[in-house]
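Quick one, T. Sequence first:
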Amino acid sequence: MGSPRKVLRDIDPKTLEAGYTFDKVKSACVRPLPKKRPAQSVNNDIRPISLTCQISKVMEGLTLSRLTPAVLADLDAKQFATPGKSTEKDIAYILHLVLENLDRGNCSARLFFC
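Structure tokens:
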């Protein structure tokens, strides 16, 4: 099995330079996956999973590996959906802000996490 770069190199470079994408790369097979078994409701208990072709996954991985470092530098420090950060840190930060403002008085807080 070749490396992802070799796979992309074997595709006609002119099509990639021209921005042409193969129809197979643009399509996905969407399958329902139950969140719990047995599913009680289609709207609440089933989520769609998109199965894409391997070349799409390789191209996505290469794009992410190149874009992530550039984008991470420009993200707000309070963006917690990045490597090395977690939802626990996000919740702790939000609670800190809420408690800080409650300590000042004349305010109330109502939070909803889902």
